[in-house]
């Protein structure tokens, strides 16, 4: 099987612009064309190499030939065959022309999709470039090791072999990271359990340069004289994965205050709301990645709220979204596959059964089937495609995010109480309620008491955050951040938001 001349991936296209055919993967063919615009590119798909049927995509310009790539200039999509690519460049010489493989079309169904894709692409390309620089430095470093070794072979032969192996391992590691980042480019949903997905999700255009500094490899200088005196210190390498700042955001609507907690250092920063903020007490929110928080619902002395908004945690810019169909406070919500599912809540003295989902790609709300059980002040957990809901009942409600309906569940809770937090932990669920933490084995339909906890209203206003083997969530009645050690089953208060 042919491989791309720029990477080790299987080649899917062949270009005849030179005297000898050159093979490319779908990611590097657009780069090849745009970097060699003076050549005549006769590219075609390699027979049997493409799993997708690219001929289903027709060129926007000629409307005849199969499109091989997409140009995203001016914030729009233009499907292009190879000949029309040069025509498109000449027709719009004033524009920059970011080219993407044709397969990207399936992810770009709306303007919101395009903006997210371009933002993700910029982050991925930035990190990949930083990693390639590391690889280049490691290759040079490896060559320098060989030159130095010829002068000190009697002293450092064993050491150099060990260090060079580290360099090769490090190169492979960075290449692996590049592959992970490349694979994340086309995912419909990022998986935080994977390194690259988690890095991208916690990155934004404001912090990626800082995070990238932690990707750099530390290389010592090669100096013969001190090496002769101290062979062990002649060459050193160190590799570290970047440690992005995991943050928790807390909104105190009544006090017009935004609190941000850096979990890496448990540092707390507080700022006052901008004048544009229109949040109410009793709302719920969740992190949707890329430095954005989704917030909805709430109440004040006069009314309940159906509002929803996006908040940029870096700039504190506030973007209003379409209103929900139902006014409510204390709802449960969960972000999954570019959608926010909102269930239940509290309205005029009663808990609600209603459900709805906000679709970012369509910028609209859709009403969902009612929950079997009315409940409020609860969190939602997810295992696979299913959302799980507890609280105010012995029953557990389960929602299928693909079929958009509730399914039967035989799990019976020993106790029913309000103000509860449910969270996924590996392949099971943990329920914090009243004065107990319960472990729910979904596959076996079993519930067991895991540990005793302080009695309280254990509703977290946002879905719990998993970080370094711990779960972080809030407690509604004491305005505090709590940490649960999932290995030792220990619960401890970290800080109080309201002083």
UniProtKB/TrEMBL annotation:
Coiled coil segments of this chain: none
Origin: domain of life: Eukaryota
Alphabetized InterPro entries for the sequence: Kelch-typ_b-propeller, Kelch_1
SMART domains: Kelch
Pfam name, any one: Kelch_1
Name of this chain's protein: Kelch motif family protein
